[in-house]
Hints:
The protein is mainly α. It contains 3 helices and no strands.
Amino acid sequence: MVRLLPRDDQWRRIEPLLHGKASDRGVTAKDNRLFVEAFLWIARTGAPWRDLPDAFGRWQTAYMHYNR
């Protein structure tokens, strides 16, 4: 899968703001960058979460991460 969003410099700026970092208590997120890309895909297309392409993983997982 080609990564269109975000660029590496943008990712470095937002990465510390997301839940599931190694420094956070609880479960560490497997791939926060993939979640951000999934969220941006949803925002860009206006599609419901259940229509999230399989390349982004399970839509239920992305939706739960978004709600947190």
